Structures are given as C-alpha cells and as structure tokens.
Amino acid sequence: MEGERRSFDRAFKVETVRLITEQGRSIASVARDFDIHRSVLRRWVRQYREDREHSFPGKGHLKPEDEELRRLKRRNAELEEEVAILKKAMAIFTRPPR
To answer: Is the pTM of this model over 0.85?
Structure first.
C-alpha cells in the first residue's frame, strides 16, 4: 500500500476529529490507531474548527461561499468580454465613412 493515496469520506473525517476534540484523545494515538499521519489529522482538526458545517466538502465540491466567489468571478469575466466586444463594435460604427 506504500505510495498509494487513501481517501476518506466526510463522515470518517468528522468522527476521527471528534475523537480528538470531544473525547480528548491525542492526535498521536488516533494517528496510530487508524494509520493516518499526524499532520493529516492536525489539518483535519484545523479545518473542522474553522467551519464545522462546511468542513471536508469532498473532491470537486466547494464551500458555499467559495462556490459563490467562483460563480461571480466567472460572471465578471463574461461581462468584461462583453464590454470589450462592445468597445470594438463602437469603434467600428463610429468611424468616419471613407
């Protein structure tokens, strides 16, 4: 299994973090029990404490505020492109005739 990445679902991560945060188990003992690196557990605990409801959204999923930011950036890029097209059209149509 060396070199192979394991993936863990949200429920597993939440329950593992709760062992540390609510049951007072040490990161080292949980890491040993589940064969997970301590730095991974520390990152999970930090993410869980920052935003319990939206922690561990899963691969390809974003937190609602991140999804909204992504949508707004995409819309902004579309609008900038439309403005550029309109500017070019204005330049063409306001040219003096030859």
So the answer is: no
